[in-house]
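Protein Entry — a single chain follows
Fields — amino acid sequence, structure tokens
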Amino acid sequence: IRPALDVPRVRLLAPRAFGVGQRSARGPFWRAAAVGFLSFAVFGYFLSLAPGYFAASLGISSLPAVGMLAGLALAASAAVQLAGRGAPSRHRTAGSSPSAMKRAAWPVRAGLGLLGVGTLGAGLAASAGNGPVLVAGICAAGLGQGIAFRTVFDRLVDSVAPERHAQAVSAVYVVTYLGSAVPVIGLGALAGVVGLSAASAVFTAACAAAAGALAVIAGRGKTPPVRDGGEA
């Protein structure tokens, strides 16, 4: 006996594989992933071990003040990204000439420079007990992260065909969220051996050096045009 109506077979939903799918988009993907990993490592530090360390260095006992120190970098990052919303992306219309490529690369390099200088400055200010410089360093790191991450993220999206956007974005955020966890776990392990002050100095210096290295290489390469069919 057959049913009066044909019912289509139900297919189980399964997550799609991570990746960008296009060879030409792998450069933008790895740049976005590297910037995301580093910047969220810095954010993970500011949100985990740093608040208590900063409070002890500055003699702060107010919990709301400690919370404000923890959230400054994120607030600065959100503010600069919201301020740049709706502005034309330079890299989308810059072209492929060497001079145009340099103009398109400067937001990434400037953002990473701010991130590195701010992170290192915050670490040095905390060790010296200098509150104003500490706040300025945290804000600079947040502003730099917002500029750099938004730029490389936009470049990735522009380089991937629309049907690949979800896969590419998901893959970037997997790497990014690993950055907010793995380095901080390592920092905690190091702090258990050498103390929080020394571990923080090593961590902030390493993040600043990594930001400087990425500033040299992350702005290179052009965004390939997106073609129909998912291949560039």
The first helix runs from residue 26 to 47. The domain at 23-84+94-222 is CATH 1.20.1250.20 (Growth Hormone; Chain: A;). The two ends are 51 Å apart (CA to CA). Helices lie at 26-47, 50-58, 63-83, 90-93, 98-128, 131-159, 165-194, 196-217.
